[in-house]
Structure formats: structure tokens, C-alpha cells
Amino acid sequence: MSAAAGRPQVLLIEPDGLVRGTVASVCRELQLVRLQQATSIAQGEKWMQSNVDHGLLLSLAERDAALALLTRLRAGELRCEADIPVAVMAASADAELVVRLKELDVRRLLLQPFRLRDVVHTLEQLWPMPEILVA
Description:
The protein is α/β, with parallel strands linked by helices. The chain contains six helices and five strands. Helix 5 links the parallel strand 4 and strand 5. The longest helix is centred in the N-terminal third of the chain and has 14 residues.
């Protein structure tokens, strides 16, 4: 089994190319997760209808569509497990949004601008690397 095969597959839905590229680069460099990328909620949902992911890192740039996707995910309407870990990225969050995210079992909210170490820490917490045994 290759090292990549042992890492969880996580879908990143992010319209901002700079953010998406930076997160993908960090994931690749640190071998945190196998990252699939989508530029829109529609593209991400299409991916999730035919592929099994172990997690979702989701931008709330398309807020209503993103929340609707999370609702469909939690209802078991997509191919992946309904309870996969989800982290979201948002420019801001009011109390109403935070309550809704809790209802949808979002495990982490990253407020933008965030530091790369915040993304790395989130990925390490939600999708921990299996420990390598050294003889």
C-alpha cells in the first residue's frame, strides 16, 4: 500500500484560486490528506455524488448553497458517509450561522483570513495521520 493510499481523501470546495492552491500545496507538501479540489458548490456536489470522501473542507463563499449541500450530506443523500468530518471557511460568522453550523455537525470554523498553521492544525485534528511504527 502506498503512503497516499493510507491518507484520507478530503474534498476542498473553494472558489478562490489562491486559497485553494495554497491549501492544496500544503496538503501535498506535508502529506496530510489526499485532497480533491472543486471551485464551486455545484462542482463539489457533482463530485460527492459519484465519489467517496472521508472529509470536507468547505468555503462558505456561496453561503446558502454551501449550507444546502451540508444539509444534503447530513441527510445521507451523497455517496460518502453522512457523518464525515467537515470544516468550513468563512469571511465572517454571526450567531445564527454558528448555531446552524453546530446543527450540521461542522467540527471546525476557520475565519478568514486564517494562517496556514490553522489549516494544518485543523487537518491534523480531523484526519490524524496513522502513527508509523519504527522497529
